[in-house]
Structures are given as structure tokens and as C-alpha cells.
Amino acid sequence: MKYCPSCGQPVELRIPTGDNLPRAVCTACGAIHYENPRVVVGCVPEWKGRILLCRRAIEPRRGYWTAPAGFLEIGETLQSAAARETREEAQAEVAIGTLLTVTQLLHAGQVHVMFRARLLEERFGVGAESLEVGLYTETEIPWDRIAFPSIHYALRCYLQDRRDAVEPLHFHQINRPLAAAISAVE
Q1: How far apart are CA 51 and CA 122, in angstroms?
Q2: Percentage of the residues of the chain whose pLDDT score is greater than 70
Q3: For residue 186, is pLDDT > 80?
Q4: How many Å is the maximal CA-CA distance in the chain?
Q5: Burial of 54 from C-beta contacts in 10 A (0-12 / 13-18 / 19+)
Q6: Same domain, 92 and 10
Q7: Are 111 and 78 a contacting pair, CB within 8 Å?
Q8: Is the pLDDT of residue 171 over 80?
Q9: Which residues does residue 119 pair with via DSSP β-bridges, in sequence order?
Q10: Which CATH number do you get for residue 11?
Q11: 22 and 85 share a domain?
Q12: Does 46 lie in the same domain as 30?
């Protein structure tokens, strides 16, 4: 941030009185502007043992596969955002279940929250952000073409939990450049 969104004057990075981290502080009006992690939320939808996946039509990772997920909007609950993303990306309706994974991506300033979900019917389609949408068994999942490490992690946890007939919360942290994180999955 170079300019204050409140008054348009330049900001400088400094530690405000009473704080312990550098913040963008307006040189004119004194407004303090905080940068906080963005929340990505989604789900792993299942229908009769198969997982719903979308092939991305947008960057980053265009052409790679993902579970429906996207940024949380102001005024949404985590669960309603996961259901909305599924409607937008896969034209499918889901019942959101229990919390599956929380992944901190320190390098990206994001937190990814994934839920277990159940398709309400075997009806889905290609949304604006998807090239292709389909249902896949565990052995059919294109593991070498999964878009993000957090999705790879969520899918692995989901499938292991299903085998073990448990529903724990999994917590994970990724703190490395995106290219290194992706190559670790591939």
C-alpha cells in the first residue's frame, strides 16, 4: 500500500504506538491500515463414494484440478461460502458437513478452510471458473494434476477419514514459496 484509502496521502511503514508490528500508517491523517490473511473456504463434496472435482478455468493453476473453493465474502458464514463456491464452480447443491481441514499458508497470507460435504443429487455442471467438472473415485482422482497443496492435503485427509470412519479436524501449515509447495505435491 502506497497511499491511504481514507485521504489519499502517502503511507509509511512503521510500528504504531502500542503495537508491535510494522503497519501502513498515513503520514497525513494517521490512519493505521492493517493487512490480515484472507480466508479461502471450500468443501470436498461426495456422491455415492465419488468426489466432485473441478478443473480450473482461471489462474493460478489453470487446467489443474481442485475441490470447489474460493474467498470468503463479508457477511458470509464459512459454511454458506463453501456451498456458494460449489454452486458457482460446479453448479451443484451440497449439504455442508463437519470441518475437515484448516491450512495456514504463511507465504501467501491465506488460511484455507475445507469442509466435508454431500451432494444433494447427482446434478452438476461447468461453472464460469471451471473447464470441466466430474465425479471421481479415489483411484481416478488426477493426483498429479491437483492445483494446490492444501487441496491435495484435504482430499487425502477426507479419504483416509472415510476409510477409518472418523471425522476429525486436521490442521496443517505450509510456509514455503508456491513453486516449492506445488513441486512437493507433483
Answers
A1: 11
A2: 95
A3: no
A4: 60
A5: buried
A6: no
A7: no
A8: yes
A9: 94
A10: 2.20.70.10
A11: no
A12: no
Q: Could you tell me the pTM of the whole model?
A: 0.88
Residue 4, by phi and psi: left (phi above 0), alpha (psi -120 to 50) or beta?
beta
6: domain range?
Answer: 1-35
Report the pLDDT averaged over residues 133-144. Answer: 98
Q: Work out whether strand 32-33 and strand 38-47 pair parallel, antiparallel, or are unpaired.
A: unpaired
Q: What is the pLDDT of residue 177?
A: 61
